[in-house]
Amino acid sequence: MTDSHEVTLGAVVLPGRAGIYTLTLRGGAVAAVEPWIGGDPRWVGLPGLVNLHAHADRAFAAESFRPASLADAVAAAAKARATFTAADVQMRATRFFEHSIAHGVTRVRTHTDVDAVVELRSMQGVLSAKRAVADRLDVEIIAFATARNDLAEPDGLRRLKHAVELKPDLLGASLNSSAEPKRALDALLTLAERHGLPVDLHIDEHLEPGRMLAPMAADAVIARGMQGRVSFSHLCALAALDESSAKALIDKMAHSQITVIVLPESNLLLQDRSQATPRRRGITLVRELIAAGVKIRLGTDNVRDWFFPFGNGDMLETARLAAITAHLDDTSELVSAMCGGCALLREGMPGDLVLIPATSFDDALARRPDGRVVFKHGCRIV
Ligand SMILES: [Zn+2]
How many angstroms does the Cα of residue 201 sit away from the middle of ligand 1? Predict the structure, then answer.
């Protein structure tokens, strides 16, 4: 039963809650969740999927590529990105956003390259793409100082300041590539504080404990009173630390209210890469972080580019990989990680949700079917 003000959806199972339900959407929100009396389940209902780490500006830019290492991917990407125009970034980012919407993603956070390779062309292209999908997808743009834009250098910092004038939603940087990471971090956090912007760092995307920057960055967050304003993406090296050092860092991160964005696809592909078969997974200590009270979120990271040649922006695929590689067995924790902290679709929530044609959460993860029905602000958009 549907009219312009109210939508009723039956035969829905809600991961994390026993039973089968009818959902009523009204006034842009989930107005009611009531028992369904009418037979077998047909849909799995989830809050709108949230992809908290993407690179829409580079998506679909490489047809086929196998990086020899993370550094190799950075070099190949830089060579190709030199030819990017704002128009082709816009076209590819729009394609990525449309894929995301079709999968049931209602919010995307995208790291957008700022460096001497593309200057502000990627920012301009992604901003245009964001405007084009604004009524169907919440896009948060991170002005991202890449590995080729060291914020410890005056030119790098000046370039990011120009990007801030384009009104990004967050600031980010790839810290491990800086010649002076502490100085780069200080510059970034000072700029973020001045403009009231949260920060998301690409940090410790390697497996060498001696190169870790997360302890220093967590200290800086506490010293500046930026608790709850900073996220760490990747943090692979945490899994290479000895037990007591890992515990000390995890406790410090819990104290600084740092959110960790886990990126199974790219970490599995790029970490422990050599001529031999990888022995280490490259996935951060997800379960220990959750146990300590650290918020865990998921992102697809790169899609069809030099860092990751596969993927299509489907958070069900990312969640499946997180379940496999991090043994994230608890359904509520997994749903929370893939839905921006929302563990269950419930009455009173905003009407951003996806119905997946499946009979259970595991059925949805196993098949990741097409034919999803997506609502934004209570209106059907797919
Ligand atoms: Zn990334």
Answer: 9
pLDDT band at 228 (very low <50, low <70, confident <90, very high): very high
Give residue 347 CA to ligand 1 midpoint distance, Å: 34
Q: How far is the CA of 246 from the centre of ligand 1 (A)?
A: 23
pLDDT per residue over 302-349, tens digit each?
999 999 999 999 999 999 999 999 999 999 999 999 999 999 999 999
Give the phi and the psi of residue 242 in degrees, each rounded to 5. -70, 165
Residue 3 has pLDDT above 50, yes or no: no
Residue 5's pLDDT is what? 76
Residue among 354, 350, 356 at smallest CA distance from 371: 356
For the segment 197-218, the average pLDDT, to the nearest whole number, is 98
Task: Kindly give the distance from the C-alpha atom of residue 233 to the centroid of ligand 1, in angstroms, as a whole number.
Answer: 7
Cα of 108 vs centre of ligand 1, distance in Å, is 13
134, two tokens: 């604004």
Give SS3 for 21: strand
Taking the centre of ligand 1 as the mean of its atom positions, its distance from the CA of residue 194, in whole angstroms, is: 24
Q: How far apart, in whole angstroms, are the C-alpha atoms of residue 206 and residue 270?
A: 9
Query: What domains appear along the chain, each with residue ranges and CATH number?
Result: 6-47+344-380 (2.30.40.10), 49-338 (3.20.20.140)
In this prediction, residue 38 has a pLDDT band, given cuts at 50, 70 and 90, of: confident
- Ligand 1: centre distance to CA 37 (Å): 45
Residue 146 CA, ligand 1 centroid: distance in Å: 9
pLDDT at 4 over 90: no
Is residue 310 within 8 A of residue 268, CB to CB? The reply is no
Residues near ion ligand 1 (Cβ under 5 Å): 301
Helix axes 181-195, 154-164, angle to 10 degrees: 20
* Structure token pair of residue 65: 């590529």
User: How far apart are the CA of 302 and the centre of ligand 1, in A?
Assistant: 6
Q: Kindly report the number of other CB atoms within 10 A of residue 10's CB atom.
A: 17
